[in-house]
Amino acid sequence: MSSNLVEDETQFYCKAKKYWKNIPATVDGMLGGYGHISSIDLSGSKKFLQRFLRDGPYKIGTLHALDCGAGIGRITKRLLLPIFKTVDMVDITDDFLSKAKAYLGDEAKRIGNFYCSGLQDFTPELNRYDLIWIQWVIGHLTDVHLVEFLKRCKAGLQPNGIIVIKDNMTQEGIIMDDVDSSICRDMDVVRKLIRQADLSVLAQEKQENFPEEIYNVFSIAMR
Ligand SMILES: C[S@@+](CC[C@H](N)C(=O)[O-])C[C@H]1O[C@@H](n2cnc3c(N)ncnc32)[C@H](O)[C@@H]1O
C-alpha cells in the first residue's frame, strides 16, 4: 500500500502545501517546468472527452464541471470552460486561485465557486457535476484519503456524470517524491483504489507525444 510510504501524514500534507506556495502562478509552474507540453496535454484530454460528448449511452451533460487541484485554471480555461456552462475550481493554494481570476479573463465570470481547500477535506456538492476532472494531484493524497475523496466525488455526480483522473503512473511500484511531497503509483494500485471507491472504469487511455523522460500519463474515466 502506498500510504505506507507516507510515514508522517501531517508532514506529508504540510510539506506539499509549502512546496506549492513557493511555485510561480504560471502554466510553467503548474507543470514543473514543462509548460511547453500543456497544449499536447489539453488536445489529448479533449480527444479523450469526446467519446462522452457524442450521442450514446455514455453521453454526459454539459452544465457543471469541477476542476480538482485546478491551480491557476490551465485546464479550466482551455478544456472545461469551452464545453461546460459553469466550472467550479478547488485547490489548496490560495495564490493560484487568486491568479485564476486574471488568467481566465472575462470567462472567469463563468466560475461558480473558487474553493480553497485540500481535496482530503473537500466535499463536492451532492448530485451536481456532469464531470469531475482530477489531474496531476492524486499523488498528494494518501490512499485512504484518495478513496474517501473519490467516494465523495461519486456522490457529487449527476446521474450520468463521470469522474476523470489524469495522472502520472509508474511502470511498476510506488515512488515517493520528497521535493513536492507526493507519491506516484502504478496503474494496478490506482485501479485498486478506484474499485475501493466503488467506481467502475469506463475508459482508459495513455497520453501520446509526451517527452520520453517523464512518467507515463494516463486518463481514466469512471462513474
Ligand atoms: C501539478 S499542479 C497541477 C495543476 C492543474 N491540475 C494542471 O494540470 O494544470 C498540482 C496542483 O495541486 C494543488 N494541490 C496540491 N496538493 C493539494 C491537495 N492536497 N488538495 C488540493 N490541491 C492540491 C497545487 O496547489 C497545484 O495547484
Short recap of the structure:
This protein has 223 residues and is α/β, with parallel strands linked by helices.
Q: How would you describe this protein?
A:
This is protein N-terminal methyltransferase. Belongs to the methyltransferase superfamily. NTM1 family. Its EC number is 2.1.1.244. α3 crosses α4. With 223 residues, this protein is of the alpha/beta class. The model has no long low-confidence stretch (mean pLDDT 97). Strands 3-2-1-4-5-9-8 form a seven-stranded mixed sheet, sandwiched between helices.
What's the gyration radius in Å?
A: 16 Å
Give the overall form: globular
Count of individual beta strands: 9
Proportion of residues in helical segments: 25-40%
The ligands bound in this entry are: S-adenosylmethionine
Class computed from helices, strands and strand pairing: alpha/beta
CATH architectural group: 3-Layer(aba) Sandwich
Q: Supply the number of helical segments.
A: 7
The side-by-side strand order for the widest beta sheet comes to: 3-2-1-4-5-9-8
Q: Write the element-wise H/E pattern from the N-terminal end onward.
A: HHHEHEHEEHEEEHEE
**Parts with pLDDT < 50 across at least 5 consecutive residues:** none
CATH topology heading? Rossmann fold
Tally of structural domains? 1
- Which superfamily, in CATH terms, is the homologous superfamily? Vaccinia Virus protein VP39
Give the C-level CATH assignment. Alpha Beta
State the end-to-end CA separation.
Answer: 23 Å
Residue-averaged pLDDT: 97
